[in-house]
Design brief:
The protein is built from no helices and eleven strands. With 116 residues, the chain is mainly beta.
Length: 116
């Protein structure tokens, strides 16, 4: 059983920063990719950022230059540093882990609200 627990969400003003953390636990067949997705009201869940086991990263165009993803392989954590936040970044943010055989696991989500 793989569990992902997100933390670090909250309410901030536009232009401020937040750091989200995701901690994985359980029997994990490798943690090939860890990533962050978000679900904004009225929209589909969308990709935000991901990082591979080798440290390769990818970002959605909407967050490039503002968000940065990092991970600690030993601690099985992945953090998302979010700077210069905008009201349109308000969403529930979810952590995802893809193991070495392609199974995806999701956290419960953490709310981020950015006021203008």
């Amino acid at each position: 059983q793989v569990q992902l627990v997100e933390s670090g969400g909250g309410l901030v003003q536009a232009g401020e920063s937040l750091r989200l953390s995701c901690a994985a636990s359980g029997i994990i067949l490798g943690a090939n990719i860890m990533g962050w997705y978000r679900h904004r009201p009225g929209n589909e869940r969308e990709f935000v950022a991901e990082i591979t086991k080798l440290g390769g990263t990818a970002y959605a165009d909407s967050v490039k230059g503002r968000f940065s993803i990092s991970r600690d392989l030993f601690k099985k954590t992945a953090d998302l540093q979010m700077n210069s936040l905008k009201p349109e970044d308000s969403a529930v943010y979810y952590c995802k882990l893809r193991d070495d055989i392609g199974r995806d696991f999701w956290g419960q989500g953490t709310q981020v609200t950015v006021s203008s």
